[in-house]
Write a structure and sequence with these properties.
Alpha-Beta Plaits; globular; 2 domains; eight-stranded mixed beta sheet; kinase activity; Ribosomal_Su5_D2-typ_SF
Length: 310
């Protein structure tokens, strides 16, 4: 049996602007996803996905047929639109992977198990960790596989491959990532709160791209500068100021209010959106007392910085 693992991700700076070349800061998470591959019935892929509680959340069989992956329907999945959508996405990934390494799908079949360390509703990278794991298995370029399946900037692939914070930037249409010396002394005053709703990344990207009158060059330069300043920042108050400026810039670019203004206007510390605005996690500054503020409002999934980030 072969086994592959990839890390989840948090994009601390550069959401949306990363698509246009802004230098961004990404943090790999301790939680990730494992892919286990063993030989199976010839010309068949038997796929089972387990959640963080080791419960099956997706199961399917596909027939390998010279680059086509035909879904073998079962009574449990035939009338389930959600499962059918996942099956179609899996077909798309495998077909793209086949085109880059067809030899591995010849002469045999596979039993494949995936295991998540985190709730797949959290937006920590269920898709990106899967793409990176499949790319490791097949020895193909994960960025190209991402491009031909889910799309996006690719920062989550870079985070999946790293055990340290990274800067990520698209230059001349190529992804460039470097290890970042980001280990804030004030990390005990940083925590992450799940907003009890999942954001659709593709919809968030489409919304950003549809906004008129964006000065992309200026936005890219400003966000890149803030990323550099945040990496060097050793003062919590300066860190909060930089994040507030970042929030204001992105708010204007996507024509949406800051999440702090929309949901938590009375919060005494600072809140920053992460990834697609309006869902998944936020970053908040504060202490245990501030964590109670969120619990009192029904937000009970809260992680300290060191609990979540590698």
């Amino acid at each position: 049996m072969q086994e592959f693992r990839s890390n989840g991700k948090i994009l601390l700076t550069g959401e949306y602007a990363v698509l246009n070349g802004a230098k961004s800061l990404a943090l790999p998470t301790k939680a990730g996803q494992v892919l286990k591959v063993s030989e199976g019935e010839k010309n068949i892929i038997s796929w089972t996905s387990f959640d963080e509680n080791d419960q099956i959340w997706f199961q399917s069989e596909l027939k390998i047929d010279d680059g086509n992956f035909t879904i073998i329907d079962s009574p449990e999945t035939a009338n389930n639109p959600e499962i059918q959508n996942i099956q179609k996405r899996l077909q798309q990934i495998l077909k793209a992977a086949f085109q880059k390494n067809p030899s591995i799908f010849q002469q045999t079949g596979y039993t494949i198990h995936t295991h998540l360390d985190f709730n797949r509703q959290w937006g920590l990278g269920t898709s990106s960790t899967l793409i990176n794991n499949i790319a490791q298995w097949l020895n193909i370029d994960p960025y190209k596989l991402l491009h031909e399946s889910f799309g996006g900037s690719g920062y989550d692939i870079a985070a999946a491959k790293s055990d340290l914070p990274i800067t990520y930037q698209i230059t001349e249409n190529k992804p460039v990532s470097f290890t970042a010396d980001f280990n804030p002394e004030f990390k005990e005053n940083l925590f992450f709160v799940y907003l009890n709703r999942k954001q659709n990344s593709r919809e968030a990207i489409a919304h950003y791209r549809n906004q008129p009158d964006k000065d992309l060059k200026s936005l890219t330069e400003k966000i890149s500068g803030i990323t550099e300043q945040i990496i060097q920042c050793d003062n919590l108050e300066e860190f909060k100021l930089l994040l507030k400026i970042h929030e204001t810039l992105i708010s204007k670019a996507i024509n949406l209010p800051r999440i702090q203004n929309e949901l938590f206007p009375d919060y005494p510390e600072l809140i920053k959106s992460l990834g697609g605005w309006g869902g998944d996690f936020i970053l908040a500054t504060g202490t245990e007392q501030e964590k109670e503020y969120f619990r009192n409002k029904g937000y009970n999934t809260i992680f300290g910085y060191q609990e979540l980030i590698k």
